[in-house]
Amino acid sequence: MLHSHLTTLNAVSLVLNAFKADGLSSEALLAGSGISAADLNRADTRITTNQEMQVCANAVALKRDIGLELGRRMHVSSYGMLGYALLTSATFGDALRLAMRYPALLGTLFELGLEDDGERIWFVAADYRENPALAVFNAEFCLVSLKTICDDLLGHSLPLLAARFEHAAPDYEATYAEHFNCPLHFKARDNAFAFDKSWLDQPLPLADVITHQAMAERCRKQNSEFTGRQAWLGRIRQLLRAQLNAAPGLEGLAEQMNCSARTLRRHLKDLGCSYQELLDELRFEQAKLLLREDQMPIYQIAEALGFSETASFRHAFVRWSGVAPSQFRPHR
């Protein structure tokens, strides 16, 4: 699990609530994510998108079409300040353009855009670069949640003209009709749904200039916080990645970051991780790359990753992946 972008607990809470009626414990859904029950009780908790995706992977393992259901539950109010900024926008088009300005606050793993083909506007979600195993789930979750946002903004269902998906039609394709009342196309170049372009100029029923200006400014500040933390975390990852064969330790890394060990520890805790977790994640990432090349002996991989003994590397890799390095390595 590699740390990437920061996000809120909104989607995680949604997953837990979706399975609550089935009596499934939160521990089973949070397994492997590093998110604790205490984190769920803090409104200001920030997690990484990969922590969020681990929870989603646990959910998909239990119910393959859960992405569609979660998207239906992701109302505009789930996005906090951004949601209120969208609701108080002057027009539907203004709200959509504002949402695309702050993808970190929207929590999307896609590049969003509005594509004009003359008569229709396509709300596009493209350029997915995360876990391929969750590509279908994320496409379903993203498009249905965007449609839910649109409906909430207008106060009624947005009439769709068509919808398209990058993935092949799943065996539960019939369920799509409950969420997209329009012609569906699979194996497309991206994920998108289309509506008449006249809707962009539609005034929103909850538009309010004063509230909108206040919420938009708070969104700008929160986005700066998210992106600033991401840049800081990126620098830490860059430093550690270059020193995997001789990791500097928390104190050494703090010195390289020009801060105290105490400050570094606190910042990492705020980001939902620790020094050792980051080091393990980067070692795991590099180990998988080296093992896939199938050239370097395992003992040399262990040395390159800073392990004094090959056995220690083997134990660590089993803990990270569930299999031994020799089993992970492709056979000739």
UniProtKB/TrEMBL annotation:
Pfam families: Arabinose_bd (PF12625), HTH_18 (PF12833). Keywords: DNA-binding, Transcription, Transcription regulation. One of its GO terms (molecular function) is DNA-binding transcription factor activity. This is AraC family transcriptional regulator. One of its GO terms (cellular component) is cytosol. Signal peptide: none annotated. The keyword Transcription regulation applies. Residues 234-331 form the HTH araC/xylS-type domain. It comes from the Bacteria. It comes from Pseudomonas silesiensis.
